[in-house]
Amino acid sequence: MAETPKPYALLAEFDTPAAVMNAARSVRLAGFRRWDVHSPFPIHGMDGAMGIKNSKVGYFSFIGGVTGLTIGMSMIWFMNEYDYPLVVGGKPLFSPLFAFPVSYELTILLASFGTLLGMCYLNRLPKLYNPILKNQRFARASDDRFFIVIEASDPKFSATETRKLLESLGSSGIEMVED
Amino acid sequence: MHSNFNPIKTWLLAAVMVWFIHGTVSVNAADPAAQPAVNAAAHAGATDHPEATKASIPVIKQFAYSYLTAFMFYLSICLGALILVILHHLFDAGWSVPIRRFLEHIAFLLPVMGLLFLPIALLATQIYPWMTMNPPDHSLAAKSVLFNQPTFYVVAFVIFALWTWLTWNLRRWSIKQDETGDPKCTIMLRRYAAGGVWIFALTLTFAAIYWMKSLQHQFFSTMYGVYYFAGSTWTTLATCYLITIALSKGPLKGVIFKRQIYDIGVLLFAFTVFYAYIHFSQYFLIWNAAIPEETFWYVLREKGSWWDVGMIILFGHFVVPFVTLLRIDVKLKLSIMFPVCVWVWCMHYLDMTFNIMPVLYPDGLHVTIWDPICLAVIGYVLYRVFKKSFAAHAPYPIRDPRLKEAITWHEEPDSTNVSNEGGAH
Q: Is the separation of the CB atoms in B132 and B39 below 8 Å?
């Protein structure tokens, strides 16, 4: 399509984890919100530097787990005590004891579904296309370079000012990525 | 504070106490009328012997049971510390280096526990009904290989000898490294840990079976050892959490970070679940199979107020701590963690009571003056010894090769020495 390319994000390359960490701290302090750091390996302390709060995935896991436990217990109660009462081994028609192993398995199953789906939802996955992946330089994010990407949709974004900021933070190369 | 602590005086006092107790035992043992009634009640665990309730229980027996409960409670903490030290070396852990030294000291309280075992050894015939059961019931006859007096004492001796040897070496090589900084010490410690973990598993199981489970020798449970282990490590982690917090402002300042505190909290949470898993497995299988040889143990514990104690353990030992510790940020909030850790102690002590006391008081929970006395005395002795050995050595393994990793990892490197930090672990 012959649309004029519009700016998507500024891509800034850094040579060391320490440099990208310091830069990330400054970017956070400058008040940007739609930005990310890319690194070939996890950098300890980066969460703090970027100001990333604890993930909310846990809530999805918890809701999944509680749902699983409830379904398991009520399913066995419904089947064994209500719908088709059946005495097995002289035990009560329903007891949370014998219902527990199955309910527990369902707790784990639905908690992991909750975790997986919650993670996808929070990460906006599946995402089939990201303009940043077209960039040649960015390929080294999985090898030996560290990148900060600030998206143009950020309210604080300005093509000139943001570039200046990244330059002042010691970036070894800055590019505008276009969509 | 108490620098005039005199170990000789303490032991003299203890010796006099033991002699006194022993004297009372002999008098009591000579009175055959007092014995069978209590034994019968303890065995059948039934309320159909109402005459054999607390009125007829001799004081020495009350003391012995309270002492055993307190002993098993503190033994838990020592054994838990031992396994945490062993696991540190087995996993070649980095994060737990700063907390390892005080755990080594707590583990090395096991020889002291050996001395504190003397009252139990002397009062064994009062505590364990199988020791005086004549003629033996079918169960005792079948298990006579394990349950006879010489074996009981030999096993106790071997257990304490092994614990002394193991904890002494685990501490010795660690302290040696403080002076030399030799990485060879770490290798040696790893070897002791690798062999020690087997010794730990076997001795802990035997200790739990002989000293606690054999109160009702007819009982069967393959879960019993690991059940004691799960509760023990849980309690130790709570203790460890509080000690870490207390020391982080004093001798461990600068080496304890959020990371250590958080990880202890996570382990505490894990063992909350592990204990529940183990205890549920034991109960569930016995409940499901419904064989009288196994169910009688729980039937006894569902009579009278023991039912309520069981419910308190179910909710207080698992549900409440589980829900409380579930959130990730709770593990760093002292305002929540402090009450939780104290609660953990109460629950583990109640769990020990639940295991031991129904044999003596089949009709329900009874608290005697001996309970707090025994808890306080053993606790005080252990505290003094711990304090002394902690003060005598470096507060953490100062030259451990992994120390740097423990105190830098996960912390934001400060901008001055940022060039050699940053990540690729």
A: yes
Pairing of strands A7-14, A146-151: antiparallel
pLDDT truncated to tens, each residue of chain A (179 aa)?
A: 556 788 899 999 999 999 999 999 999 999 999 999 999 999 888 988 999 888 899 999 999 999 999 999 999 999 999 999 999 888 999 999 999 999 999 999 999 999 999 999 999 899 888 889 888 999 999 999 999 999 999 999 998 899 999 999 989 889 999 88
Write down the domain spans for chain A: 7-52+127-178, 57-122
Interface test with A, best of B283, B311, B418 (most A CBs within 10 A): B418
CA atoms within 13 A on the CB side of B268: 34
pLDDT per position as a tens digit, B275-325: 999 999 999 999 999 999 999 999 999 999 999 999 999 999 999 999 999
Average pLDDT of span B397-418: 69
Nearest CA in chain B to A43: B423
Q: Does B413 touch chain A (CB under 8 A)?
A: yes
From CA B302, how far away is CA B242, in angstroms rounded?
Answer: 34
Q: Hey, CA dihedral for B351, B355, B356, B359, is it positive or negative?
A: positive
pLDDT, residue A45, reads 84
Quick one: closest CA in A to B408, which residue? A44
Contact B423 A17 (CB under 8 A): yes
B414 touches chain A (CB under 8 A): no
DSSP letter string, B125-194:
HHH-GGGG-SS--HHHHHTTTTSSHHHHHHHHHHHHHHHHHHHHHHHHHHHHHHHH--HHHHHHHHHHHH
CB contact at 8 A, A56 and A117: no
Mean pLDDT over the full length of chain B: 87
How many CB pairs (< 8 A) connect A and B? 52
> Partners of A176 in the beta sheet?
A10
CATH class name, domain A7-52+127-178: alpha beta
Beta bridge partners of A9: A151, A177
Amino acid at A175: E
Q: Closest Cα partner for B387 from B105, B178, B110? A: B105
Secondary structure (3-state) at A143: coil
8 Å CB contact between B411 and B261: no
Residue B381, classified by CB atoms within 10 Å of its CB into exposed (0-12), middle (13-18) or buried (19+), is buried
ipTM value, please give it.
0.78
Mark B233-253 as b/e (b = at least 16 C-beta within 10 Å). bbbbbbbbbbbbbebbeebbe
For residue B198, name the pLDDT band (cuts at 50, 70, 90): very high
Helix axes B334-356, B59-90, angle to 10 degrees: 130
CB contact under 8 A, B415 and A22: yes
Outline where DSSP puts E strands in B123-194. none
Which residues have C-beta within 8 Å of that of residue B425, sequence separation ≥ 6?
Answer: A44, B405, B409
Supply B305's token pair: 């107020």
